[in-house]
Write a structure and sequence with these properties.
164 residues, four-stranded antiparallel β-sheet, 10 strands, elongated
Length: 164
Amino acid sequence: MVVCGIMAIIMAIALPSFYKEAHKDSIRKAIADISEACSTARARAVLNGVTAEVRLRPADHTISVVEGSAPASPSTYGFQGEEVVEHRGSGGAVFTAKISDHILIEFVGVNLIPDLQELDEVTCLFYPNGTSDEFVILLRSDQGEVRKITTEVVTGIADVEVIR
């Protein structure tokens, strides 16, 4: 009985350490996913000559990359019944990722428009010439780690800054 009591005390002391170690990679994975999304969008835009979008949905912690339409033909028109309907040329998602629920998206801003977190979806555009919108995301882990991810407007490359 004494041995079981000692084991229970040791487990109670060690459990928070195991939890921290198990969720330590969630902030790294979130940073890697967001950086990969920006990199994929930039590569698709430059290589395919189309505008690519990084779409962040703060409510459900998902990020995706969608190829937009080519600059020469931004939209096409067709018939749906007797109505003329505009079809915007956007392809399906070429990259999707889910950010861990242990990560809090504290701030999202695009082109100096701050705190877009109330929106269902925030979109950052990457252009065929290699440039992008200014995209700022502030992430906080459940262990207090804070990281800021921004895109360089001229190059469209994501940069990670350690805040805390």
